[in-house]
Design brief:
alpha+beta, Pseudouridine synthase, 3 domains, ten-stranded mixed sheet
């Protein structure tokens, strides 16, 4: 098979080049894609391109002979089991958005050795639409709770901007070891990404989290309501560790020692609980029920959660 020119579809307008190849040529390794781009064997609209290039509908992508072939018929395939699972997560749906209550342990997007993720299952949530909903933000794999999806490109642009500019009020619940000295307050500690962690460093990016103690068992455990005013990686997890109250079962931000709490499941106890979308969609405020492992842990530790 020789060189081919593949036209970018309307539904892929604005998609990054690497994600486009992942969609249509899923068996092409990223390392090979980068080499083909570097050696100009792959071009976009007749020009050399980078993997981060955002495509435009109508552009032509030059494809050299590959071992892989476009998976046109299979690109939207989702197994019945996975389709059923993601549909069970839907807690709100209208013509503009879909909101999921994501379980802990399920990634939002794929990566190295990550094959089961929300992004791959989105075609199962088309419903009456012609296209799958789109991701507009992310939460950590081990964090449970609210994940908002845009049902078309227009709403994706609106929501992406709102999340980026922090115009949406988000509330998290966290079960922590220890109890903050103050029942409520503001954690203003700059964060810088170092390796796989975010560290509190003087030259880091501005990071602010508001918190409130909802209930506590002396100085042993506390249920915290946290509202991030900025959107740094692992912000709440890093800030909770910073004030001396790391989140239970957090294997990355565990304080001075990694203490395992007996009689509770070894899962991260951080839940994206509420989001207020009324700045964009009048009257839309969504809550996600706590996962079972979180409810059970509160009962075991003697903590009450009253909405």
């Amino acid at each position: 098979m020789g060189v081919s020119l593949v036209r970018v579809k309307d539904q892929d307008d604005g998609m990054r080049l690497n994600r486009w190849f992942l969609k249509y040529y899923p068996n092409l390794p990223l390392s090979r894609l980068q080499k083909l781009l570097r050696t100009k064997q792959i071009k976009v609209d007749g020009k050399k391109a980078e993997v981060s290039l955002k495509l435009q509908a109508g552009w032509e992508v030059r494809i050299p002979p590959l071992d892989d072939k476009p998976q046109e018929k299979d690109k939207d395939f989702v197994s019945d089991k996975n389709a059923e699972q993601i549909k069970s997560m839907v807690i709100y749906k209208d013509n503009n958005i879909i909101v999921l209550n994501k379980p802990s342990g399920l990634a939002v997007q794929g990566g190295t050795n990550t094959f089961r993720h929300i992004d791959a299952w989105l075609p199962a949530l088309k419903y009456e639409k012609d296209e799958a909903p789109k991701l507009v933000h992310r939460i950590d794999k081990d964090t449970s709770g609210l994940l908002v999806l845009a049902r078309d490109r227009k709403n994706a642009e609106i929501l992406t901007k709102a999340f980026k500019e922090h115009d949406l009020q988000k509330t998290y619940l966290a079960l922590v070891r220890g109890c903050p000295k103050k029942q409520s307050g503001e954690i203003n500690a700059p964060l810088e990404k170092v390796g796989e962690k975010s560290l509190v460093l003087p030259k880091g990016k501005k990071a602010i989290t508001l918190y409130k103690v909802l209930d506590n068992v002396g100085n042993k455990f506390a249920l915290i309501e946290a509202m991030p005013l900025t959107g740094r990686t692992h912000q709440i997890r890093a800030h909770m560790e910073y004030i001396g109250t790391p989140i239970v079962s957090d294997d990355k931000y565990f304080g001075e020692e990694n203490v395992k709490v007996t009689n509770v499941k070894d899962k991260l106890y951080l839940h994206s609980y509420k989001i207020d979308l009324s700045n964009i969609y009048k009257g839309v405020k969504v809550k996600a029920n706590l996962p079972q492992h979180f409810v059970e842990a509160l009962a075991v530790l003697g903590l009450d959660f009253k909405e």
